[in-house]
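Researcher: I need the complex structure. Ligand is nicotinamide-adenine-dinucleotide. Inputs:
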Amino acid sequence: MTKKILVTGGAGYIGSHTCLLLLEAGFEVVVVDNLCNSSLESLRRVEKLTNQFIRFYKVDLTDFDSLSKVFDDHTFHSVIHFAGLKAVGESAEIPLHYYEQNIGSTINLLKVMQANNCKRFVFSSSATVYGDPASVPITEDFPISATNPYGRTKLFIEEILRDQSKADKDWQIVLLRYFNPVGAHKSGMIGEDPQGIPNNLMPFISQVAVGKRDKLSVFGDDYDTPDGTGVRDYIHVLDLADAHVKSVQKIDQFRGVTTLNLGTGKGVSVLEMVKAFEKGSRKSVAYQIVDRRPGDIAECWADPAKALEVLGWNAKLGLEAMIEDTWRWQSNNPLGYEPSE
Ligand code: NAD
Ligand code: WQD
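Model: Output:
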């Protein structure tokens, strides 16, 4: 029988790519999203690309009753929980909203799952839970901490899931700690569509390359790194999506909480990224060096060995593909999912 997966936040950046790969892998997909940071157009395009149907519910996960009704309509094999707010700076301005949305939503979801005896759960965690790591590469057993309210929501949710798993041994939980997701589907039809000024490096660079913004501000060139700029582990969104498919395929073999880093294991600096993007897009990317961004760390990259061992997953797509695919999406959709006609 076809397994049905509930994808919360499925209209978003990582969720939409994961829905596509889930459908291609033969799963049935139901999406719950309040569209606060996304557009239904992403899912329409996934349907076009796969020639398959996605059942969509416009539901806010903080609304317990509406969420319960979704479970009345379906029996899910497992839940992949992407829904959440993710802007680090904004989380420091409106922390209560972040706690209410991210933690409140997750508690509602877990309660509804428990009531429906659905106990397989894949959660979008983040490398942000490593805070300022003492060294790199980072393994899953590094101490966890948080430097901002967004990061604390991820950390608290991880703790809640560990507590729930101790209380009820039937839960099978996979915590996926993403490093820096970038890239887009090869078709150029779906990709990252940030609202307003992008917070993250890759969408900012691509908006400079396409002429939407004047220049990139490079946040500091005096870090203790080879060229002085910040080093991160950028990971292609399709590789990330693939790890979610493998997680739901293998989740029955797991007990308790399984925590996995999703990164490539390679660090790339801001200036290396700018140069590589210019090469890949054949556009120039103007930049200026400015002060460090408060809260940023020098280096962050993964040791991804455990994901290979446990999930049989490793990142297959390199920097060239990340840039080529970002650029195809950005140049084909300069306004994102806004109707271009
Ligand atoms: P996104 O904003 O594109 O997707 C999140 C989706 O959740 C959006 O479609 C939004 O409308 C929906 N949503 C938010 N709050 C909701 C609520 N209360 N009820 C229903 N829907 C809600 O973000 P993304 O980049 O695809 O990230 C997905 C997940 O991965 C998030 O949990 C994020 O914190 C986590 N993550 C992202 C990154 C990254 O850099 N993109 C890195 C690490 C972890
Ligand atoms: C990457 C590098 C910046 C923008 C954030 C969150 C993290 C996770 C992923 C969700 C850094 C530099 C950036 C710019 C720049 N999200 N930069 N100019 O900070 O590693 O991680 O997104 O979980 O929690 O903190 O990613 O893309 O913002 O920055 O110089 O305009 O690019 O200083 O070195 P970051 P990023």
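Model: Summary of the prediction. The chain has eleven helices and 14 strands.
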